[in-house]
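Autophagy-related protein 27 structure dump, as promised
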Amino acid sequence: MKFGSISLRPQFLVLLFVLTILRRVSPDSVPALCELSVKDKSKAYYYSLASPLRKFPHGILSEDGYYKVATNGTVLWFQLCGSMIFNHDPPMCVDCKDCGGSTHCGMGCSALVSNQIDGYPVCTTLGRPSSTVLDVLDKKSPNMGIIVKMTNTGPKHNCSLSVSVICNSNGVQGPQTLENLGFCDYKTELKHPLGCAKIINSHGSGLGWFGILMVIILCLYGGYILAGSVYRYFFLHVRGIDVIPNLEFWASLPHSIQSWFQSLVRRFRGPSHSYRSSYSPVNF
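structure tokens r here:
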């Protein structure tokens, strides 16, 4: 195949098609990482951290490319539901090879922490986008917010970062506190409108068992009519309305149902007045 003056081989087209599919099903896909649905009694709570809002077109993702919080000489950078991007002020620390390397430090992971060790800032990768897991803050009050947890499996230690996204419909408040839960396990929080769930009242919704049964019956009936019509048309060479299988039965079915219903009514109500008056009394 030629496109203008460029010749495109079939192998190249197949490769391009496969790469497109892999890109769409990538485990780092933002929608897959940022959605959570929780059902509680008659309500369903739905979170979508990547959904754009009028004031936040990128959803909960920081427009700077990262969130940053520092306390007691420890500096934490992280991004929710994706990898970090540093257009300015990149991390300057040692041992950043598993998160972008020295030239792109911080751009190969979703959470990175820097600690002062022997006077040098040493970096530790805390999480990657593909390891992101979402859960509600409080099982009893699912609308309070969610926890975004990301992890990283290192050669010596398994590290993690938990970010509490608290519901705040009034605006955004970035991370201000940082808590060390272990050797390389940290916790912080921020407030965001996307921490508020969309509540769907599911009470009484759904088809129920009777509705599902009726759908199955209708599907079987439709399949029977379709298969029978195809068979009669192509193999028996029947044309017109007679192509419908058992046409006489289906045509008489409404009358048969009506007669059965009337018979059932007479059985429970007894003979009607007109039925009784059709006989004349006999005197002996």
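Residues 67 and 136 are 21 Å apart (CA to CA).
lmk if u need the other ones
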